[in-house]
Specification:
It is built from 2 helices and no strands. It is mostly helical. The radius of gyration is 14 Å and the shape is elongated.
């Protein structure tokens, strides 16, 4: 069990990267298809990977 953590490191790095990217995008943009900045920050931080994917699919405004 002690050596299995190395298998999860790439997944953790990907999850953090996607979450940080989504959070930076939410904080630097003012227009969203649905909701507002507070709602998207909460969704991205609370649900991390799934919340970030939902933001990029549903929340991110296309016209930038």
């Amino acid at each position: 069990m002690g050596d299995n953590w190395i298998l999860f490191v790439p997944l953790i790095v990907i999850e953090l990267g996607v979450t940080v990217t989504a959070l930076i995008h939410v904080l630097t943009h003012d227009r969203y298809r649905f909701g507002n900045k507070g709602i998207w920050i909460t969704i991205v931080l609370l649900f991390q990977l799934i919340g970030s994917i939902v933001y990029f699919v549903l929340g991110k405004e296309d016209n930038e």
